[in-house]
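Our example pasted here:


***
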Amino acid sequence: MQSAPVMTVSRPAGRRVWDLPTRVFHWTLVALVVTSFITAKVGGLWMDWHMRSGYAILALVMFRILWGFAGSQTARFAGFIHPPGVVLEYLRSRVPSSAGHSPPGGWSVLVLLVLLLVQSSTGLFANDGSFTEGPLARLVSGAIGDRLSSIHRYGEWAMLAMVGLHVAAIAYYAFVRREPLVQAMITGDHPTARVDVEDGPLTRLRALVLAGLACSLVAFVVTL
């Protein structure tokens, strides 16, 4: 008697567009940015949590920079940072993206990473003149500390502007171009993607190693 064939369910080929480390980075960063903003506005004893959130953001950004060279295809800078001519052609043609960030979206990600790096780094030296100061504030003069504090303070508005632009772009793609970007960043899959990026155990192990390296470096810096 022949045995019944075993039915297996597999993920359709060519749909995985975001690896798990990139997705974890994205949503953890969203939570930490919201936490940093709220704790800064509440102030007082909540500034301790603001500083902890800032350390975590710095570690995340450092990980993402490393992942931009060692991650999967769509996570690498080479995969989504395009020359200005490509960006203009994309804006003129309005063709759908095959996978990952669109050409203008790639540049917005880079700008956001730079802003986050500046914001979290200057926070290490910032001081409010009385109650709270960053762990490295004692290493610089008062004048330099005040200057870095001002950059940190005004950088908040630049961050809010970029976050607003990011949310507006997501809404545009969701409601006008009908592309499920949020769903793809949750599940990792996109129904029209023509790539199937690496997202196996070795990818995730590599990400854990790099995340550990980033966290260790930030821990070393804040305890100088």
